[in-house]
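Summary for the steering committee. One of the milestones for this cycle was to obtain a three-dimensional model of the protein with flavin-adenine dinucleotide bound, which we needed before selecting residues for the alanine scan. The sequence and ligand used are listed below.
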Amino acid sequence: MEFQPELQEALMMTPDDLTALSNCLADALRLITQAATVQRLSRDFYWYSPVLKKLLDDKVAEAVVQPVSTEEVVRVLKTCYQRRIPVTARGAGTGNYGQAIPLEGGIVLDLALMDAIHEITPEGVAVTGPGTRLGVLETAARAVGWELRCYPSTIAKASVGGFLGGGSGGIGSVAHGGLRDFETVRAIEVVTMEAEPRIVLHEGQAVHDVLHAWGTNGIITRIWLALTPAVEWAQCVVAFATFDEAFTFSEKIAVDPAWTKRLITTFEWPIPAAFTPIAPFLRDSKAIIFFMIAAAQLDALTKAAQEAGGEVTLAAPWVGVRTQPLLSDYTWNHTTLWFMKYDPAFTYLQCGFSPTEARSQFAQLKARFGDDFLFHIEFMKAGTGVITPGSIPVVRFTTEERLNEMIDFCRAIGVFVANPHSNNVEGGGRYREDNVQLLTKYKYDPLGLLNPGKMATFQPGA
Ligand SMILES: Cc1cc2nc3c(=O)[nH]c(=O)nc-3n(C[C@H](O)[C@H](O)[C@H](O)COP(=O)(O)OP(=O)(O)OC[C@H]3O[C@@H](n4cnc5c(N)ncnc54)[C@H](O)[C@@H]3O)c2cc1C
């Protein structure tokens, strides 16, 4: 996005506010008012959605504050509370739904500098600051025999705090579920937005009060994240003549606990046509599966794929997040990015198919929408332990009405949809029905200054 000077014109913070904020920091240079930088740090990947692009293009903060410690976060929040300045937390700004875009100006609280890994315990729990990049944590964990249970395909850039604030799962979720499952998030320390901000530790079930709340009910300053023993991984690509055959084989591997896997992604053609850097491993008109599988099982997987009629086009070791080619760079929401580059008329949805009815659901969607709805399946373990075909289909965008028609049809045939074209926690599909995120907001942010507008059901003073 080009820098637009006119976006800065509606400044509401005063010079006195800026002085007060810089007094909160040991180094005043960590208060940024340079307009192009403020605009850059007010953005995420909201433009994936043509609906959100229109809504959010002109939203920008007035300044960026970069704290380096919990103490600085406390001082900044206290000052913002006194002066009624909105605060939008930012990790790396890789969210897709405009989650980190300030709707009402104020400051962006950029937590990237709070990136210390405090400890990796002998029991396999990482204790880290919110700004730590997931890729850095994965490398540090592997060095001592552990690895992340799940991570987004943005692992190289995304922060741990941003993953907890706005993410859900990713590579590894086929074995370990999403962030919400299996007590992966052990504890979260948050700073509240009150006259006297408190530092509160949420442990056990209480982590759900702040998980996936988009920074609306506290600033996460420390995280205790459970890891899993490191595995030696391999990557494998298999091509099948039809999506049906590819889905059948990928599902067989996904649901069989005998296979140690980290990623199983199945694409309908022509989605793979967009993956130009890895074209040698793709086959024209064929459906493709990407696997991360235990290296010790690579030969067995290759054999099983060939017996099922697949062509194995890549079988190679995975040697860390810098492996080339890195198949995960084409999975999860990276698939959308590649396909939107290939055909800008497309956008995406986030769906969950039924483990038992998926084939019938695929058929109904094809009959209704044809090639306007292209299947990209990510197998995930649900919190119940059942392996489900999650999905981030790429869909042709014509009008918002047509997009909503697709969402409504999915829901009518029993396909779960988390709507990525909504800019509030409730609309995004991962809002908790027990309301704990909202109830926490009333306790920790009574004036509604944290990422205002993103918790739609919150009413200040209620
Ligand atoms: C190409 C692409 C692929 C992606 N793939 C995946 C995927 O596989 N799985 C997945 O889950 N997501 C995915 N995403 C979304 C996103 O990358 C992840 O959710 C990522 O973990 C967000 O981290 P971040 O540091 O960029 O967070 P940001 O975008 O900076 O923030 C996300 C949200 O968390 C809040 N937040 C940030 N830090 C804090 C804090 N310290 N305290 C409180 N709130 C905070 C922000 O206000 C915002 O609402 C993808 C996005 C893109 C563009």
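Key point for the committee: The longest helix spans residues 70-83.
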